[in-house]
Amino acid sequence: MSKLKHYETMFIIKPTLTDEETVAEIEKVKANIEKNGGEIVSCDDMGSRQLAYEIEKNKRGYYFVIYFKSPASAILELERTYRINEQILRFLFIKYENKKEITAWTKMSDEAAKKAN
């Protein structure tokens, strides 16, 4: 198995979904990360926010961040599933490679875990 890399993914879900549907979409993304060999470290639920610009006629979006470790090969599959999910307006993956970046990733994931509790 390839070495696990540190990643952060942020995605914006359509604001027109109910709370239950939003939670279901988030769980679907988490399950997909784990199915592809990823290990979720922490999550940051940023809630509904104003978008910087209108996307698909939406002025708001539900922001969610997941800090996880995963084999590099899994990212392409995760991106593919994001693209075909019509409920996700935008998404972003950030890879943390060197020691300084991984230290920052650890700090951010710890803060997200504290915020969640």
From TrEMBL:
Keyword presence, Transferase: no
Annotated CDD domains: bS6
Record keywords: Ribonucleoprotein, Ribosomal protein, RNA-binding, rRNA-binding
A Pfam family: Ribosomal_S6
InterPro entries for this protein: Ribosomal_bS6, Ribosomal_bS6_sf, Ribosomal_S6_plastid/chlpt, Transl_elong_EF1B/ribsomal_bS6
NCBIfam families given in the database record: S6 (TIGR00166)
Family affiliation: Belongs to the bacterial ribosomal protein bS6 family.
PANTHER family registered for this protein in UniProt: MITOCHONDRIAL 28S RIBOSOMAL PROTEIN S6, SMALL RIBOSOMAL SUBUNIT PROTEIN BS6M
HAMAP family: Ribosomal_bS6 (MF_00360)
Known role: Binds together with bS18 to 16S ribosomal RNA.
Protein name: Small ribosomal subunit protein bS6
Organism: Malaciobacter canalis
Lineage, broadest ranks: Bacteria, Pseudomonadati, Campylobacterota, Epsilonproteobacteria, Campylobacterales
